[in-house]
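EI: anyone free to look at a 581-residue chain?
SC: sure, send it
EI:
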Amino acid sequence: MAGIIVALVIALPWFGALAVWLARNKHPRLQHTLAVVFSVLTAITSLVLLRFASSTPAIQIPLGKAFGDLTFVPDGLAVSLTAIAAVVGSLAVIFSVDYMRGDDQLGRYYFLVLFFIGAMTGLVLSGNLLITFFFWEITALCSYGLISFYNDDPKAVAAGIKALIITQIGGVGLLVGTLIAFTNLGSFQISDLLEKASTIPAAALSVIAFSFLIAAAAKSAQFPFHTWLPDAMEAPTPVSALIHAATMVNAGIYLLVRFYPAFEAVPAWKTSVLMVGLISALVATLSALTASDLKRVLAYSTVSQLGYMVYAIGAGGVFASQAHLLSHAVFKALLFLAAGSVIHSIGTRDLRRMGGLGNRMPFVRNVFVLGSLALAGIPIFNGFWSKELILEAGLEHSPIWAYALMLVGAGLTAFYTFRMVWLVFYGRAREHLHVHPAGSAMKVALGILAVGTLTTWLFLGGLSGLLVSTLPFHEVHHESLLEIITAILSAPATWFTLVIVAVGLGMSWLRARGYRLFGGGWLNPFVETAFGFDSLNRLIVRGTYKFAEQLSATQTGELNWNILGILGALLAVLVVLWLGA
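SC: here you go
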């Protein structure tokens, strides 16, 4: 039974992608319907799969000596991430019914979105490193296609290429680590690497560990590979929600957690992970303080919140990182989709042109405020509980200066979050803005996510039970919800954080009253150049453009066929390896 469910949760979105592609010249209503039906079926199947969590492979197909076995393992870590990808992905698709209405490229859009969801479920369920790499690359290709979806816009195309190049650095890291692991173990099975890591020579294991860290940092937009994610805002807003909350960026966090047992003893690896998360969180938080583009503020907040998760992993708080991944997926999807509703309604992302929209868009205002309360870490909302778990782990297992910096970051998060809320929904109304209400499909998706920000913390005990059976670290043990809540409320870190968050809220209030805090004069030059890292990225992108010009004769100009051609080439390589085994 588990094997059938695993097969369905991977195959359903891909069948849906094919169905929508075949119907691309049909009535738009049919394309919307097919996308919604297949995405919702995938979400339901992923929730059913939670009941069949097991470390035993649900699917195991021999592939020959070159590959070992094609295995899919629905353990607690895999099924929890599968559910996040499928459920949040389905809500993004439902939201798209209104957001993408009238677009003449619906078939291409839904094809890429559904293919993206299927690739993410395959990535986290795979029990074979080579197959994991295959799905890893598919997510990169899908993100490229979606970020550059408006391919008549040079900014969108450049953003897509930038994302593809930077994430491919991570792909190289994953491939290098995979091949070195195979050289030492003679196997691509993930279980073999986890169980036999101690038999790998220390130097080789270190290379594997740091190669995987590079892969994770590039995929999850962590320092120094963080600059692609803010530029990815050129994509349609539902895609932003998909990338930031459900799929792409979660893959790097998954990689670190999956292989934590194999790498935690590698000298300096945990410290490096912690530092990557710390720097990412702080740089992104500073960038969000003065950003004037609504989606870019949310993008910087994604980099920052992912930084908190990476920091937690480095501090040994593996459960805390996964708890925050769940919370973040819900409140960040809510914030992006609510922002999309605003942008769709008034036609601009510029915070300086907004203001006073609360009375004209009350439903969107209410759900956006709920998501903002969760992002800021205000009590009872899901972000509060999971962020406190991270800071508690940091206080106990990281240097005190690192914990103090993350605490400051929490206060600044509250500041920029409510600066954003004020600029959009309060303040001086802009009479020239034409506002039309959110559609019913938008409201359904937003309403479900709003409820999630208030309730998903109730599943922390269940998440603990899922992870304890498959991640047997001393930091992960099965606790009831009551035990988790009691531990959070009794921890000194909680009260430190509440004071700092209150200070951040006070600063935001003062800013709204006209006091100039973080006005941007000294900070803007750093933010505009991504603290210098955009210069390096521009060199890489320009070099790629020159190389691309030499290959332009092979291009059809049709993005979908280009992506299918790349996938076909990957499959051909795999077949050759198989036949040669």
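EI: The mean pLDDT is 82.
SC: 👍
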